[in-house]
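Q: Here's a chain of 588 amino acids. Please give me its 3D structure as C-alpha cells.
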Amino acid sequence: MKYQPLGSNDCALSTLRDFVELHGVKLNRGFCVGRSGVIESVRCIGGFVKKRDLDISQLQNGMVELLRIPAKTTFSLETILQFLDAESFHSQDVEKLTETSSKVKELFSECCRIPVISAHASETLLLIIYFIIFSGLERSGYMLPSPISHYLNGVLLTTEIESPYSDVFVWKESTDVAPFAQYGFASIHLIFNALSEFSAVNFGSKHCERTISALMASISSRCLEIPHEEHKGSDDFYVNTTLVPVLDYVNHDNKHVNAHFDIDRNTSDVILVLDMELYDQKEEVFEVFISYSPVDEIVHFEKTYGFSPQPEENRTSFMNLCFDKRFSALQDFDIFLFYKWFSIKPCLQFILRDGRVYINDTLKQFAELLLPYVADPQGERQSCFTYNPNNYTTFSQFTSRARGTSEDRFLEDCRSLARESEIGPSEIIGLPQLAWTCHLDAEGEDFARLNKEQCLKVLFGSDELYSRAIDTFQRQLRLYMNWRLDVLQELKRQQPAKSSANLAAHELYVIQQYYQQLDQDLPVFWTDVENYENLELADCPLPPPLKYSSYAFKPSDERQQPPVSEELLTKYPEEEFLQYASFFMENT
C-alpha cells in the first residue's frame, strides 16, 4: 500500500503527538501514520512502517514492538471511571472536573434507564453513551479530562466511516429501516432515536443527530476486544471492549496481516507487534495490518466498519443472508413464528469463493432452517408441523400440575405470557416448545411437541426426508429470492442511504450469482463442490438472534375458538411435562 504522509495540520497527526507527549504512548521510531488506500471511498488513516527507521534492537521470537499504549490511556468501562476519579485530574482544575464527573455519572445512570437502551445494553453501547455525554457536556461549557477531550475531538469526531451508523440520521423507514431490519437496522434506528432524544433534552438539539451518528459509527468501528488475566499469572482470560488510541489507526486485512495486538502481562499495557516474517521484504515502506475478525463476513464488516474486504482468488469470504420477514414462505403457517418458537435464526450462510457463491449446507443451522419444510407424512399439509394457537392452555395445565394448584388460577397469566412472547420484537420466544406438534408417521398415530434437538434427531435420521426437505426449501427459496430481487431493484430507484445501497449491492450480487449458477447447472451447495472436504473452510458463526426484529406476529381469530384437547396435540404428555417441570415450577 503506498504511503502518503499526513500534513502538519492533520488531526490524526496532532492527536498522535498528544498521546505520545502527554499520555505515555510509546512508538517504535519506524512506525508512523499516513493515508491508507485500503478503503478508497473515505479518507482512511493507517499505520505504516518505514523499514530503514525500524528499531529491531528488542527483537524477540521474530517479533518487533511497534506500539505500547499504557492501560490507563485506553478507554474501557473501567478506565473511564478512573479518568473521572479526582486523583487522576493532576494539574487540571480539580473543582471543575469534579463537577463534570458528578454530572457524567448522573446522566449516564439516567440514559441507562431508558428501556430501549437497557434492552440493547452492551459494552460498546455504554462507551457510546459516555462519549455522547462527554461531547454534550463539553459543548455546554463543562471541562473534560484532557485525554478524553483529545480523543473525542481529535479522533472520534473526525473519523470518516461509511457504515449504517454514519447514515442513521438520514434514514427513511421505507428505504433503509424496513428493507434491512433483518440485519439489525431497526435496532440501530431505535437506539439512535433514543440517544437523540436523550441528548436533545440534556444538551439541546443543535448538531445533536450528526454528532450521535458520528460517535456511534466511530466507536463501533474502533473498539477492540482486549484480553486481561483473570488474576495475576492465570492462564484464564476475559476480554474488555476497549478503545485503544493510536492502535485503532491500524487497518484490517486477513490476507496481508503482518502484526497483532496483545497485552503485556507485567504492565497491562496494550502492545502492537510486527511479525518480521510476514511483511513484504521488498517494500521500504509498508502498511501494518491486523485482523479485526478471523473471517471476512460481508454484513458484519459493512455494518461495523463501513467496508468489506475485496474478494480475491483462493480467498473465502461469507455473507450471512438474513431473511426479510415481510415475506411469508409457507401458506399453512407463519414460518417466522415457527423459527421463533424453536429459537432458529432465519439466516442462510453463503460462501463466496473464486467468483461463485455456495449455500453452506455443512452448518447445523442449515438443517434447522429445513425443519418446517419436512413434508407431512399423511400428505394433508405442506409441513409435518401444525400450530396450536391456544398453546397457553398447555402452559396453564403444566403450571397447575407443577405447583399443585387450580389451573384456572394461571390461565390468564399464561395467555398473556404466550401472547406477549409471540408478538414481542425478539427473534426468540424463550419458552418451552409446546406450541407446535410434529406429526411423525403416515398413519397419524405418532405425534409430539418436540424441541429443536429432538426434531433434528427424529426427522433427519433419514437421508430421504432430508433430501426432500432440501428440495422443498429450494423451491421456496427461489420464490423468496424473486421477491427480494424486486424489493432491492425498487430500492435502487428510491436512492437509499449509501450504507444501505452498499449492503443491497452485496445481496443483489449473491442472489444473481446464485441464479446464474443454477441456470448453468453449477453447484449451489458447498457439499456439491468437488473435493469440498479438502478445501479449508473457516468457522463463520451466524449473527445472534435480534432483540428487536421489527416483525410483529399477528394472532389469528383461531384464538377465539375452543382449545384443542391435549390428546390431539401429543402422544407423550407425561414425557413433555417431566421435560419442562422445573420451568413451570419456577417461571410462570
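Q: Can you summarize the key feature?
A: The mean pLDDT is 90.
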